[in-house]
Structure formats: structure tokens, C-alpha cells
Design goal:
CATH topology of the largest domain: Arc Repressor Mutant, subunit A
Strand content: 5-15%
CATH class of the largest domain: Mainly Alpha
Oligomer: single chain
Number of helices: 8
Number of strands: 3
Strand order of the largest sheet: 1-3-2
Radius of gyration: 45 Å
Helix content: 55-70%
Order of helices and strands: HHHHEHHHHEE
CATH architecture of the largest domain: Orthogonal Bundle
Shape: rod-shaped
Structural class: mainly alpha
Distance between the termini: 117 Å
Number of domains: 2
Amino acid sequence: MEQLSRIMPNRTETIKTRVSPKEKEMIEEYLEKSGEFDSKSRLIRILLHRHITNNKQDVEIDTDEIKSVIDNSVGDLQTELNEISERIADIEHKVRNSEDISELANDIYNQMLVLDDSIDEEFETIQDFEKLASTPEEEAAFTGSAKAFADLNGVNENTTRRALSRANDMFPDVKFVTERNGMRRYYRDER
């Protein structure tokens, strides 16, 4: 008897509800077509139980909605990753560019005119040295301009100006004079 009471719980309570003739017909048609239920009472009891337990425990999962949320999240993450990759590439470019500028600064430093105690006193200005230039290297050294060093090294003047500024920061003996026209002439002063 105990087993039977577990299988068939004590159903002493009654719930009555009114439905329209059309709703009653729909229930009877569903009952016949499904073949899952042997009475209207059983159909209503089981569907009601499923509805209540599904709302409490077994939440229906809309896979399309979840897929959409995941796709949007992945899309947002991809966008952020692309932005981070671009920033890293920009930093790498700046670091590499900085290394290139330092290398060019070092090259130009070695190409600059060196003024030391061995220079004759008859040369009072850098322009006096320009007259002695017989090679492109000497011309760049004697001229000391960004354009001359750019031409000698095969780079543009803006890059050369950055390298000259870097050389001025890196090497204490690098000096420059500014002509009246604003052009700077760089040299090494080891006097």
C-alpha cells in the first residue's frame, strides 16, 4: 500500500476551471492526437506540472539567442584584440623607428666635421671648409646641414633632422650653429 501511495499521491483536492466550447474542443483534439494522455484531467495535471517545474528548474534555453550573445561578445573581443594589435604594432614601429634613428644618428656623428686643436686658425668659419670638399662625404661634413646628410645617407630630411637632434642629445661634442636663414650646421667640437 505504501508503494501505491507513492505512485498515486493522495489527490483529494479539486480545482475547477471554466473554458469556452472552443477551448474544450482544442483540449479534446490535442488529447486524441497526442496519445500521451488517457484523460483531460491527466493532460491538464501533467501539462500544469511541466509548466510549473519548467519555470522553476528547467529553464528553456533559446540557443539562437545564446549564439547571438556569444557572437556579439566574440565580435567585441575581436575588435578589442584588433585595437590592441594595432597599438602594439604602432609601439613596435616607434621602437624600431627609434632604433633606426639612433643608428642614423651614430652614422651621421661619424660623418660630421671634427673641429679640434689641429685645425689651422686661418679657417674661421664652417663656410671656409666647404671650399675644400672634394667628395660627397666631405661635402656633407663641411656643409653640416640636414639636407647634405640626408643626401649622403639616402634618407629624407625630416628623418635626418630627427637623427641630428638625437646625435645632439647622445654625444656631448655635437654642436650646431644656426645660419641667418635658419639652417643649422652640425659639427663635432673636440677642442
